[in-house]
What does this fold into?
Amino acid sequence: MADLKMIRYDKDTSAEAVILSDIGSSYFDYNKDNDDFDLIYERFLRIKIITKNGYSWGNQEIWLYHNDQLEEKVTSLKACTYNLFDKKIVETKIDNGSVFDEKADINWTIRKFTLPAIKEGSIIDIYYSIKSPFFFNLQPWGFQNVIPEKYSEYEVRIPEYFNYKKMVTGYYPFFINEFSTNLITKTYQETETPANTVNVSRPRTSTYDINYKENIYRLAAKDVPAMRSEKFTSSMKNYHTRVEYELNSYQFPHASFHDFTSTWDQIIHKLLANENFGGQLNRTGIVKEAAQEVISKSSDPLERMILAYDYIRTHMKWNSQMAKYPTTNLRKAFSENKGNAADVNLNLILLLKELGINANPVLLSTRNNGTIRENSPNLTRLNYVVACAEIAGKKHLLDATDIDRPYTMLPFRCLNGKGILAIKDSVQWIDLLNSEKENTRYYGEFKFTQSGEIEGKVNVTYDGYPAFNNREQIRTKGTDQYIKDLKDEFKTAHLDSVKVENAELTSPLKLSYDLHSQELVENNVNMIFFNTLFGMGENTNPLIAEKREYPVDFGCPIKESYIFVIDVPEGFSVESLPQKVALALPDNAGTFKFTASQVGNKIAINSVFNLTKTFFVMSEYADLREFYTRMVAKQAEKIVIKKS
It folds into this structure.
């Protein structure tokens, strides 16, 4: 009742929801019929919904693994919503119709469900259990989330026959961190019916015990604050408090030893031998007609590679699912012109191979999936695949999932350290960041009207990811809506004559518009004050926190430049200009140069921010934050002109 009456969480008044309790356990249950263990995972989750932004917590997912012979099963699922009506607690149970399965790839199915009757103040309860035959899939557990958690506990009970590597990450301390052992005794009865003989005999029942030691790991945390993602981070999984268990080996009494300690060589070898991955890459006949179309257009290998990339990105639609395995098979995905990331990019590899180009998969972990540990080989860490084409000794990384992105760029989600080239008898790590960049250039010419307004013409050039992001908006919204949204973004200025030059994918995207505003200038008749960049630069420091417990990851180099020319109105003279400044991070990881000068009756502003280093560790944060603070302050300085 007290939780239902709660209208805000005292320890975090901005929270949209709070996890009141999240309790999980994993244990092994001996199955006498199979003479084997089942891995059981149980979870109880209770969440308080505080604001409308918290409604999304009513959408839940359970990921289930399967192969050709075996599968994980949800053996129990109970979910309900509690609300307060007329001082009474009303329970609304989940409807079976709101539970459905979605195929993620060949090995993973997602069971999705939505809690009913959610409103501000609701509490949702979810309980489910999974029975798994896969010993390697002992569930991980996160003790931190993007919303606060009052209590989180995970207990793992492992029989002595199994050897798991336990890995704990994060900074938040545990309230409980216990290890203990327990002797398990299970008693079974077995009835034996003798074969038919001359003498009549009755069935014989015997009793026997199974004894083994169990290792118990119990971890718990309480009053865990929300770990909200700040700007310039990859995955919070890398930094929040979390425990994982990786199967190294197991051996049952009087049975053979099973070693699961893998190397990256072994993982790649198994993948290439797997019918659902490497086996799919031998079926180039799927794309034979497409290859003939490309061959008819060019004989140059590089041009053929680009044509193959263009063919796949325009003929196949990505369903937004990350995957390293196809949904079902590549032939079906190609004929239906749609699929997950593996469907798209493995078909691209097939097409490149059919064209005689040396092409292979590169497996990686996307930014929101966490980083790959090179010293800890683990297949489950890999959740995505792109194509690598080698032409004249140069490797080209290709991802055809987005229609608006040129072949020279990987999706930003892929810029996460290194990937692994999947070729036989060799492990090659490949940098995922090549020539990708963020480059934005502004050029503007401005003058003052007799009424004291500022007006001018602005040209913006987007290159790299800014060009891709804007092209995507133009395609999905339409040019008219894109322009309308652009106008709405300028709260202190009016835009007219907006033009978009939507160049080819290999060229920068250009935008031009006329700007006029009275709010961007302060005019008291005798003096005029205005911001050096008219509010178009960095207005606030994006690095808000004074301290940061995880690195800053920009993903790719950034360059942002402004060149503005401003006419000084007749009868006025320049009273003051911002001082010239040149800032540099240690080792020239980033630079900022700013000049403001007067030439005749014109003021010239030149502001250039250039960041070449993309990853900053915690010890470098103070310098980086101070760099941004000084840059933002300089771009916000005023220019003053006065009547002569």
